[in-house]
Amino acid sequence: MGLAYNVYLNSDRIFGCDRCKTHLATHDNIISRNFRGQHGKAYLFQNVVNITLDEATERHMTTGKHVVRDINCRQCRYTVGWKYDKAFENTEKYKEGKYILEAELLCTVH
């Protein structure tokens, strides 16, 4: 296995890991700001970078049953959100393959 290099994003507003400032996503990749996580406000993103994925688990959430994976900052291993692998409700299918990052666990990187 070779070295894992971080991706550095180029945007006016970049969200990073609150612990180590590693770039995770750009403001342009936000699909929705209308989400809640364990720590409060959360954002649904189309794409994130510099993460590792935990094993898939089935969770009962406020919007129904989902298969999700916790996502961790690749640099410091801090859990920053989760990825939706599968939604069981038809109205929630739009979340599949998308990422949640919790606002409390993010910082703005300049």
Describe the overall structure.
- This protein is mainly β.
- Helices cover about 0% and strands about 50% of the residues.
- The protein has no helices and ten strands.
- The chain has strands at about 15, 25, 30-35, 40-45, 50-55, 55-60, 65-75, 80-85, 100, 105-110.
- Strands 3, 4, 5, 6, 7, 8 and 9 form a seven-stranded antiparallel beta sheet that branches. The protein has a three-stranded antiparallel beta sheet with strand order 2-1-10, with no helix packed on it.
Give the ordered list of helices and strands. Answer: EEEEEEEEEE
% residues in beta strands = over 45%
3D shape: globular
Average pLDDT metric = 94
> Oligomer, anyone?
single chain
**What percent of residues adopt helix (DSSP H or I)?**
under 10%
Class by helix and strand content? mainly beta
Give a brief rundown of this model.
The chain is an all-beta fold. It is built from no helices and ten strands.
Topology readout:
Elements: E1 14-17, E2 23-26, E3 30-37, E4 40-45, E5 51-53, E6 57-61, E7 64-73, E8 79-87, E9 99-102, E10 106-109
Antiparallel strand pairs: 1-2, 1-10, 3-4, 4-9, 5-7, 6-7, 7-8, 8-9
Task: Name a few traits of the molecule.
10 strands; mainly beta; 7-stranded antiparallel beta sheet; single chain; 110 residues; 3-stranded antiparallel beta sheet
